[in-house]
């Protein structure tokens, strides 16, 4: 079921953050974790045989899925893109300062400076 | 060596969560709606007693929008949306400060097909984005995807024509729309006594002019998010203001 | 063996869609983490976002699907690719 898919994706994102040396790849793994957590939260509110939570002429009875997780995930998606933009600009500044975006090369360049 | 540590950490995390957390979750698709607070949000009766809601027939309810997710985001939990608008503003401010790098701006090659096609499609994209955030209380969508579609239209214009700049008018629009949201909250406080209360009359469910303050707030949010995201992308493209 | 056959017989349509789309998402995200060039990583991330829109539609959440489609495939990729262009523009000098 879908809880397993969401947690396997979180596991892959965690593997990406720990094992990759390039800072940009770590940012991509963080975004994968964000997407997987959003899927998990929306899947917590599903009801078999129910409809999307919008009153219309085709749903006379109010048999809806849970709308509260969807409202929370709406906020989370927009905030994650704002965080992504700030992190990408920080990486551009790091590249200008040290010459590369690789964690080992930055550590070597910092020891040369000090 | 690093990969082995990474796989080990990942497998331990997965085993811990799947082993001890999954049994406490409800079974997928079998939730008990009557014990959750969303039941009050769906039947629009948090303070009064439960009455069934009918499309295009019920009048004068607590909250008159047909889209239940909109009524949660803008009416019942409107303070969280104010916080989200603030976080987006802080992110755009951060990018605007950090984009001050002394490099030339990114230049694209102009392609004839893209220029002609953009001239035909750009007004349609703007109309579609406006439709999505004006009808936020009737159909799925709302202010945030509508504003993003408008910003994507401006991104297309930026790619098609090399000399296009997003001027300071976008920043002025963002300021006015953001302050407008707080102003609506303060007017609600003056009229009813609670910050961000719904002070306009809520009409019949399903009409365009219904749900009180909700279409006004979503229009303001649509303008703010559209102007903010287009100026964010434009700041990343331009370099230092030499 | 018979338990496996019984497992496949009891799946409904929604379970088939979950496992197919979920399997594709896992494959694309492993590719996004292990690619050699960073540009391929960004493209695979955009594909993961687009497949998650399919899952949101099947879970009956149209608001979230429209928001994720507009934000995940358009704006996140544009922001990352502009940042990559800025980093490469400094190296050539």
TrEMBL record, chain A:
Membrane disposition: Multi-pass membrane protein
Any single Gene Ontology cellular-component annotation: plasma membrane
Tagged with keyword Mitochondrion: no
Keyword annotations from UniProtKB, A to Z: Cell membrane, Membrane, Transmembrane, Transmembrane helix
Main subcellular location: membrane
Transmembrane segments: 27-48, 68-92
Domain of life: Bacteria
Subcellular location(s) per record: Cell membrane
Alphabetical list of InterPro entries matching this protein: CPA3_antiporter_subunitC (IPR050601), NUOK/Mnh_C1-like (IPR039428)
Cross-referenced PANTHER family: ANTIPORTER SUBUNIT MNHC2-RELATED
Family under the similarity heading: Belongs to the CPA3 antiporters (TC 2.A.63) subunit C family.
Name of the protein in its database record: Multisubunit Na+/H+ antiporter, MnhC subunit
Organism: Fervidobacterium pennivorans (strain DSM 9078 / Ven5)
TrEMBL record, chain B:
Main location as per UniProt: membrane
Keywords: Cell membrane, Membrane, Transmembrane, Transmembrane helix
Any Pfam family matching the protein: MnhB
Membrane topology: Multi-pass membrane protein
InterPro entries the UniProt entry points to: CPA3_antiporter_subunitB, MnhB, MrpA_C/MbhE
Domain Na+/H+ antiporter MnhB subunit-related protein: 113-229
Domain MrpA C-terminal/MbhE: 38-97
Parts of the chain that traverse the membrane: 5-24, 81-101, 113-134, 140-160, 181-200, 206-227
Compartments, record wording: Cell membrane
GO CC annotation terms, alphabetical: plasma membrane
Record family assignment: Belongs to the CPA3 antiporters (TC 2.A.63) subunit B family.
Protein name stated in the entry: Multisubunit Na+/H+ antiporter, MnhB subunit
Organism: Fervidobacterium pennivorans (strain DSM 9078 / Ven5)
TrEMBL record, chain C:
Protein topology in the membrane: Multi-pass membrane protein
Location(s), subcellular: Cell membrane
Main location class: membrane
Domain of life from the UniProt record: Bacteria
Gene Ontology CC entries for this record: plasma membrane
Annotated keywords: Cell membrane, Membrane, Transmembrane, Transmembrane helix
Residue ranges of coiled coil: none
InterPro entries: MrpA_C/MbhD (IPR025383), Nuo/plastoQ_OxRdtase_6_NuoJ (IPR042106)
A Pfam family matched in the record: MbhD
Transmembrane domains' residue ranges: 16-35, 42-59, 65-85
Protein name stated in the entry: Subunit of the multisubunit Na+/H+ antiporter
Domain MrpA C-terminal/MbhD, residue spans: 24-88
């Amino acid at each position: 079921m879908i809880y397993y898919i969401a947690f396997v994706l979180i596991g892959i994102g965690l593997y990406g953050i720990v094992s990759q040396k390039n800072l940009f790849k770590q940012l991509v793994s963080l975004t994968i974790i964000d997407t997987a957590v959003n899927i998990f939260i929306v899947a917590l509110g599903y009801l078999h045989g129910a409809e999307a939570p919008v009153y219309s002429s085709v749903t006379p009875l109010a048999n809806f899925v849970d709308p509260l997780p969807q409202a929370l995930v709406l906020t989370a998606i927009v905030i994650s893109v704002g965080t992504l933009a700030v992190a990408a600009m920080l990486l551009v500044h790091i590249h200008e300062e040290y010459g590369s975006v690789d964690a080992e090369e930055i550590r070597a360049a910092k020891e040369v400076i000090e | 060596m690093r990969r082995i540590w990474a796989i080990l950490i990942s497998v331990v995390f997965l085993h811990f969560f799947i082993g001890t957390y999954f049994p406490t979750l409800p079974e997928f698709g079998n939730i008990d709606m009557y014990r959750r607070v969303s039941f009050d949000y769906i039947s629009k009766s948090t303070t009064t007693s439960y009455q069934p809601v009918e499309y295009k027939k019920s009048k004068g309810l607590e909250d008159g929008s047909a889209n239940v997710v909109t009524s949660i985001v803008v009416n019942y939990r409107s303070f969280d949306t104010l916080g989200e608008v603030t976080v987006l503003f802080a992110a755009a401010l951060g990018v605007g400060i950090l984009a001050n790098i002394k490099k030339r701006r990114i230049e694209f090659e102009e392609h004839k097909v893209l220029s002609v096609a953009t001239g035909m499609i750009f007004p349609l994209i703007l109309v579609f984005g406006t439709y999505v955030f004006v009808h936020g209380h009737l159909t799925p969508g709302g202010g945030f995807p509508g504003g993003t579609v408008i910003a994507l239209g401006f991104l297309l214009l930026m790619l098609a024509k090399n000399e296009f700049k997003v001027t300071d008018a976008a920043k002025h629009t963002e300021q006015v729309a953001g302050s407008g949201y707080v102003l609506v909250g303060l007017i609600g406080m003056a009229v009813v006594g609670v910050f961000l209360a719904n002070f306009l009359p809520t009409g019949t469910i399903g009409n365009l002019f219904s749900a009180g303050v909700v279409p006004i707030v979503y229009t303001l949010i649509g303008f703010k998010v559209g102007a903010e995201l287009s100026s964010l992308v434009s700041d990343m493209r331009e370099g230092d203001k030499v | 063996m018979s338990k496996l056959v019984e497992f496949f017989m009891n799946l409904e349509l929604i379970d088939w869609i979950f496992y197919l789309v979920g399997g594709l998402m896992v494959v694309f995200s492993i590719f996004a983490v292990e690619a050699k060039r960073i540009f391929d990583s960004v493209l695979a991330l955009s594909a993961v976002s687009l497949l998650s829109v399919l899952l949101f539609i099947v879970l009956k959440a149209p608001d979230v699907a429209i928001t994720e489609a507009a934000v995940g495939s358009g704006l996140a990729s544009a922001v990352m690719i502009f940042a990559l262009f800025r980093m490469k523009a400094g190296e050539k000098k």
